[in-house]
Amino acid sequence: MERDALRNNQRLLSYLAHLPKKIVSLEGIEHTPAFVLHELCNENCFNLSKAAFFADSPDFNSLKGIAGFDGQEQFGKPEVMWQEPQSFIAHLNSKAHFNTQVRQVNKFSLFKNGTMSNEQAQELAKQLGFQNPAFASWQMKHDNFGFLVYEHQNQLLDGIQEQLDNSLYLLNFCPLF
């Protein structure tokens, strides 16, 4: 059992180690956060069934939807989206309705008073159709916060939750348009 966990951790680490190179390959592409979110959610990584990424600016009292992932609207094999970025972007714009729904979110900051409003977070998750939401937040540049609402098909295993939380910082390297 321990050997399987070690193998899974090594696979995950290898998978995540390739993401910065992939991010750099998309320089100038508007939907870079969606690429990264889809990569983090796919079955080879954290296997999330649904996720929504937001940028929260307490200074401007703004929460903006950046990217959404719904496993039922997947593009296909993850490696193809990096090889054919324009096809993935076309998919986002025409077939990824959840991504469109998330990108239309423009609300007041969840972190306006320095701590996340759990009530507002739950309300946002409900509005987006999450059944069993989990939340993660992290510090971004300029005193902003990243905020993720997500669902996992199974409960995340010990250690994997910490890896997910740390991996979300990769979204800080994506331009937010």
Describe this structure in words.
It contains eight helices and five strands; from the N terminus they run αααββαααβαββα. The termini are far apart. 42% of the residues lie in helices and 20% in strands. It has a single domain (2-173), classed as Beta-Lactamase, CATH 3.30.450. The chain has 177 residues and is α+β, with helices and mostly antiparallel strands. A five-stranded antiparallel beta sheet has the order 3-2-1-5-4.
How is the topology of this model organized?
Layout: H1 2-17, H2 19-25, H3 32-41, E1 48-57, E2 62-70, H4 78-83, H5 85-94, H6 97-103, E3 106-107, H7 118-127, E4 134-139, E5 145-152, H8 160-167
Antiparallel strand pairs: 1-2, 1-5, 2-3, 4-5
Describe the structure concisely for a colleague.
The chain is α+β, with helices and mostly antiparallel strands and 177 residues long. The chain has a single domain (2-173), classed as Beta-Lactamase.
Features:
177 residues, alpha+beta, Beta-Lactamase, 8 helices, 5 strands, globular
Averaged pLDDT: 88
Distance between the termini: 44 Å
Radius of gyration: 16 Å
Task: Tell me the number of structural domains.
Answer: 1
Order of helices and strands: HHHEEHHHEHEEH
- Described by the principal axes of the CA atoms, the overall outline is globular
Class in CATH? Alpha Beta
Low-pLDDT runs = none
DSSP helical segment count: 8
CATH topology: Beta-Lactamase
Instruction: Estimate the helix proportion, in percent.
Output: 40-55%
Structural class: alpha+beta
What's the total number of strands?
5
- Oligomeric nature of the chains: single chain
CATH architecture field: 2-Layer Sandwich
Content of β-strand: 15-25%
**Main beta sheet:** 5 strands, antiparallel
Largest sheet strand order? 3-2-1-5-4
